[in-house]
């Protein structure tokens, strides 16, 4: 059986994760877990919804690299701020 991704929720009790629902894996299967702390915020509910859609093969979500997202340093430029130039050109 080849399963690439299963989204499941559970609770940590001691050193054990107790799942809310059973998963279709044989006893003793080795897995890798990605833990997401659940809070009552809407963002986490929405993320869980999209992860479930991805698990069902209905959507494909972008996943950042392990090193994180590249964010270049801001550049310093001479002259007027771009916002002022845009406002002047619109007049």
What does this structure look like?
The N and C termini lie far apart (66 Å). This protein has a domain at 1-62. A hairpin with a 2-residue loop joins strand 1 and strand 2 (16-19). Helix content is 25%, strand content 9%. The chain is built from two helices and two strands, in the order ββαα. The protein has a two-stranded antiparallel ribbon. With 91 residues, it is of the alpha+beta class.
Number of helices: 2
Strand content is 5-15%
C-alpha Rg, in Å? 22 Å
Structural class: alpha+beta
Percent helix, as a range, is 25-40%
Strand order of the largest sheet: 1-2
The counted number of beta strands is 2
Overall morphology? elongated
Stretches where pLDDT is under 50 for at least 5 consecutive residues are: none
Tell me about the largest β-sheet. 2 strands, antiparallel
Mean pLDDT: 79
Rounded to the nearest angstrom, the distance between the terminal CA atoms is 66 Å
SSE order? EEHH
Give me a quick take on this structure:
The chain is of the alpha+beta class.
Give descriptors for this structure:
two-stranded antiparallel ribbon; alpha+beta; 2 strands; 2 helices; single chain; 91 residues; 9% strand
List the helices and strands and how they pair.
Blueprint: E1 10-13, E2 16-19, H1 42-55, H2 82-90
Antiparallel strand pairs: 1-2
């Amino acid at each position: 059986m080849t399963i690439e991704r299963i989204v499941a929720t559970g609770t940590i009790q001691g050193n054990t994760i107790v799942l809310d629902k059973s998963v279709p894996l044989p006893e003793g299967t080795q897995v890798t877990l990605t833990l997401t702390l659940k809070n009552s915020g809407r963002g986490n509910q929405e993320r869980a919804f999209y992860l479930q859609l991805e698990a069902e093969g209905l959507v494909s979500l972008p996943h950042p690299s392990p090193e994180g997202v590249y964010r270049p340093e801001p550049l310093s430029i001479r002259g007027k701020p771009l916002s002022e130039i845009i406002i002047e050109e619109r007049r």
